[in-house]
Amino acid sequence: MWVSELEKSNLTEDIVDRILYKGLEDSGESADCILVLGSIKAPEFRIPVAVSAYKNGRAPKILLSGGSVRNFEDGRMGEAERMLNAALELGVKREDIILEQESQNTVENMLASLMALHRAFWINKVKRVLIVTTTFHMRRSIQLARYLFPDHIEVLPCPADDINTRRENWYKTEAGKERAMGEVYKIMESVENGLFPDFEI
User: Fold this and answer.
1) β-sheet with 154-157: strand ranges across
2) Is residue 127 within 8 Å of 151, Cβ to Cβ?
3) Alpha helices of the chain — where are they, by DSSP H?
4) What are the tens digits of pLDDT across the range 99-138?
5) Residue 185 contacts by C-beta under 8 Å, 6 or more apart in sequence?
6) Distances (CA, A) of 36 to 88, 128, 137
7) Long-range contact pairs involving 188-194 (C-beta distance under 8 Å, separation at least 24)
8) Per residue in 160-196, pLDDT tens?
9) Which residues, other chains included, contact 178 with Cβ-Cβ below 8 Å and sequence gap of 6+?
10) Contact (CB, 8 A) for 158 and 34
C-alpha cells in the first residue's frame, strides 16, 4: 500500500505501526555528524540518545537544530540553546557542537541544517548523517532529509523514545493515539503536497 492510497477513515493500528515505526531501527553505524531535531522535550529524550552516540564514537560532531523559542523549566529560550545546555551538562565538548537556530519546523530543520553542515564541514565532504528525533516523528524526518539532502549524503535513523508514543504503547492511551494519528496525517499531507515522494508501507 502506498501513502497516497491512505484515507483517514481506513487507518488501522497496523497501518499506523507500519508507517511510523517499521524499518526505522538504529543500525548502530557511524556518521560524520549527529543531527538532533528540536522540540520542547528534546533536552529530556533526544539529547541523551545523541550524546550516547557521540560518546560511543559514532560521530565527532552534534548539530542541534531548532529556532523556536519555548518556555522551558529553566527559562524561555530557543530549542537549540536549551539542547546545547543539556548536551554540555552531559559532557559534550562545546567545540563539537554546531548550532542551527533559525528553523521553525521539520522542513526548515533540514534546509537550515544543510547550511550549517556546509559551514562546518563543506557539504561535499559530508557522507553520512544520523538523525535523532522522537521515534514516531522519525519517518517524516527521514523522508524529508532523504528528499532535501544531496544524493551523496546517506541519512540514518537514530530514534529516541518518549513516554507515550513508543512502538509498544502508543495505542494504549488517548494522548498516544492522538499524537501518532496526527503524525500520520502530517505524513499523508506531506506526500499530497509533494514535500517528499510517495512511498510504500
Assistant:
1) 97-100, 62-65, 33-37, 128-132, 154-157
2) no
3) 13-21, 42-55, 79-89, 106-121, 138-148, 174-192
4) 999 999 999 999 999 999 999 999 999 999 999 999 999 9
5) 8
6) 14, 14, 12
7) 188/3, 188/6, 188/8, 190/140, 190/143, 190/144, 191/3, 191/4, 192/4
8) 999 999 999 999 999 999 999 999 999 999 999 999 9
9) none
10) yes
Which amino acid, 86? A
Query: What whole-number distance in Å separates Cα of residue 15 and Cα of residue 64?
Result: 31
| Residue ranges covered by each domain of the chain | 25-166
Cell, residue 105: 519546523
CATH architecture of 25-166: 3-Layer(aba) Sandwich (3.40)
Q: Which three cell numbers stand for residue 176?
A: 498516544
The amino acid at residue 30 is: S
How far apart CA 155 and CA 141 sit, in angstroms, is 10
Residue 159: which pLDDT band, with cuts at 50, 70 and 90? Answer: very high
158 DSSP 8-state letter: -
DSSP 31: -
